[in-house]
Design a protein that fits this description.
Layout: E1 2-6, H1 11-21, E2 25-30, E3 42-45, H2 47-55, H3 59-64, E4 71-75, E5 83-86, H4 87-94, E6 99-102, H5 103-114, E7 119-122, E8 126-129, E9 134-137, E10 143-144, E11 147-150, H6 157-163, E12 170-183, E13 191-197, E14 200-206, E15 212-220, H7 232-243, H8 248-255, E16 263-271, E17 277-278, E18 281-283, H9 286-289, H10 298-315, H11 320-349, H12 354-369, H13 372-383, E19 411-412
Parallel strand pairs: 1-2, 1-11, 2-7, 4-13, 7-19, 11-18
Antiparallel strand pairs: 3-6, 4-5, 8-9, 9-10, 12-15, 12-16, 13-14, 14-15, 17-18
Helix pairs in contact: 1-5, 1-10, 2-10, 4-13, 10-11, 12-13
C-alpha cells in the first residue's frame, strides 16, 4: 500500500517510520530544499511521546540532544531582585519523563530513524489531490497513492486543498509568539533568563551544542493583527512595537532583528475541525489539530497522533476509511484536553495584572520548594500540565499488520 506524507518536520517522519515498519511503501514530500539545520526553537516531549521514541530506538539520542536548561531566572516590574527557580523540579512535577530539545534537532533524529526505509523528496510540494489518489506536484510528475497524509503544520497545504481555507477552522487565542536567533553571548548556559510584565514575556536561552542562542517573545493582543505569515518585515515591526520599552536587556535582544539568521513568528491559534479525514486523505499533528503553538503540547500531541494513525492503518490492513475513523476516535480526547490546556496555559504565561504576575512567579517558586508529590498536585491544580503526561496511547505491536512489502528507499533533493 502506497502512502504519501506531506511534511518532514515532526509528525511526518514519525508516521513514515511506523508505516514503513508495518510494510507500507512510503513517500515523504517536503517543501524545504533540505532539513532545517538552524536549530529552530525549544519544544517539549512528555512521557507518551518519549515512550514512542523509546520504541523507535531514538530516546537516548533525544536525551543526548536536550537543551540542558536547568534554571529559570525571572525579572518583573518592581522586584528588587529576580526569582531563581530550579527548572528540573518543575519538569519533574509536570512529567514522569520530559525532555526539552530544539525542534530542528528532533526533526533530524526522527528523519534519521526513517530515511533508510522511506523515500524523501525535498524541494517540492503538492498542488492537487484527486478523489482517486492521483497527486500533482510543483516539480515531479504526478503519481497515485492509496492514502495521502497532511503532516505539514498549522498552515497546511493538504488541508487547504482538501478541506478549505485555514480561516474556516482557526480560533485565535489572543496572543503571539516569536523566536529570534541571537548571539550566544547574550545568554548563559543552562539558564532561561526572562522578563515578565503585564500581557508580555521575553526571555533568552541556549543549548549546549549551538553556537547561538534563542530569544523568545510572547505577548497578548485581543484582536488578530493584520499580516501575512510570510511577511517577515511586518512581523518584526509588530514585535518591536509590542516590546518597546520593556527593559534595556530586552531592547538588546530586539536589536538582533536587523541581523538575525533565523526568525519565527506566529499567532497562538487553535485548529478546530470536526474531522481530520476526507476520502483517502487525513491530517496529523498541527495540520489537523494544533492546540496552539508554544502553549498546548503540540509536539508531543503530533508524535502520539502519528503513532496512532500508523497503528490504525496497519490494524485495518489498508482499509483507510476504517483506519481514519478509529484514529479520530482514539485521538479525540487527547486533542480536546490539549486544547483546554492551551487556553489555560496562555492565560497563566501572560498574566493580565501586576497581582497576577506576583502570583505566577511565587506559585512557580512554591512548586520547587514542596516535596515532589505535593509539587505535582499543585502544578496540576493550577495549570493542568499533567494533561500532557497522561495522553492515551494504544499499543500497536510492530508485526500486527503487513499490508505489502515496501520498495527500496529513494532520496531526492532539489538542486
Amino acid at each position: 500500500m502506497r502512502a504519501l506524507i506531506s511534511g518532514a518536520s515532526i509528525a511526518g517522519p514519525v508516521l513514515a517510520y511506523w508505516l514503513a515498519r508495518y510494510g507500507f511503501t512510503v513517500t515523504v514530500v517536503e517543501r524545504a530544499p533540505a532539513l532545517r539545520k538552524a536549530g529552530g526553537h525549544a519544544v517539549d516531549l512528555f512521557q507518551p511521546a518519549m515512550a514512542i521514541s523509546e520504541r523507535m530506538g531514538v530516546a537516548h539520542t533525544i536525551d543526548a540532544r536536550s537543551t540542558g536548561t536547568r534554571r529559570l531566572v525571572m525579572f518583573w516590574p518592581g522586584a528588587k531582585r529576580p526569582v531563581s527557580v530550579d527548572l528540573t523540579k518543575v519538569t519533574q512535577a509536570a512529567s514522569d519523563r520530559h525532555v526539552e530539545i530544539m525542534r530542528d534537532d528532533l526533526s533530524e533524529i526522527y528523519y534519521d530513524a526513517s530515511r533508510n526505509d522511506v523515500e524523501y523528496v525535498f524541494g517540492d510540494s503538492i498542488t492537487a489531490i484527486s478523489d482517486g489518489g492521483q497527486v500533482s506536484f510543483e516539480g515531479m510528475p504526478s503519481r497515485r497513492f492509496d492514502v495521502v497524509i497532511g503532516a505539514d503544520g498549522l498552515h497546511s497545504t493538504v488541508r487547504r486543498l482538501v478541506f478549505g481555507e485555514e480561516h474556516r477552522f482557526t480560533r485565535f487565542l489572543g496572543a503571539y509568539v516569536a523566536v529570534v536567533s541571537v548571539p550566544r553571548t547574550l545568554s548563559r548556559a543552562g539558564e532561561f533568563r526572562g522578563h515578565l510584565d503585564v500581557d508580555r514575556l521575553a526571555g533568552v536561552y541556549t543549548t549546549r551544542h549551538l553556537d547561538d542562542a534563542r530569544a523568545l517573545f510572547m505577548f497578548r493582543h485581543e484582536q488578530a493583527l493584520e499580516y501575512h505569515y510570510r511577511d517577515v518585515a511586518r512581523q518584526q515591526q509588530l514585535l518591536r512595537k509590542a516590546f518597546q520599552g520593556m527593559h534595556p536587556e530586552v531592547d538588546r535582544w530586539l536589536a538582533e532583528l536587523d541581523r538575525t539568521p533565523a526568525f519565527y513568528y506566529d499567532s497562538i491559534t487553535q485548529l478546530r475541525m470536526d474531522s481530520w479525514s476526507r476520502g483517502r486523505v487525513a491530517l496529523v499533528g498541527d495540520a489537523g489539530y494544533c492546540p496552539g503553538p508554544a502553549v498546548g503540547g503540540s509536539t508531543s500531541l503530533a508524535v502520539v497522533g502519528a503513532y496512532v494513525l500508523a497503528g490504525e492503518l496497519a490494524s485495518a490492513r489498508g482499509d483507510y476509511e476504517r483506519a481514519f475513523a478509529a484514529y479520530e476516535r482514539k485521538m479525540a480526547e487527547n486533542v480536546r484536553r490539549c486544547r483546554s490546556f492551551a487556553v489555560r496555559s496562555a492565560r497563566k504565561l501572560l498574566p493580565r495584572s501586576r497581582p497576577g504576575i506576583w502570583a505566577a512567579v511565587h506559585a512557580t517558586r512554591l512548586i520547587t520548594a514542596l516535596p515532589p508529590r505535593w509539587g505535582r498536585l499543585l502544578l496540576n491544580a493550577s495549570a493542568g500540565v499533567r494533561t500532557l503526561d497522561t495522553m492515551a496511547v494504544a499499543n500497536y505491536p510492530a508485526a500486527e499488520a503487513q499490508p505489502e512489502p515496501a520498495t527500496p528507499a529513494r532520496h531526492q533533493e532539489s538542486p
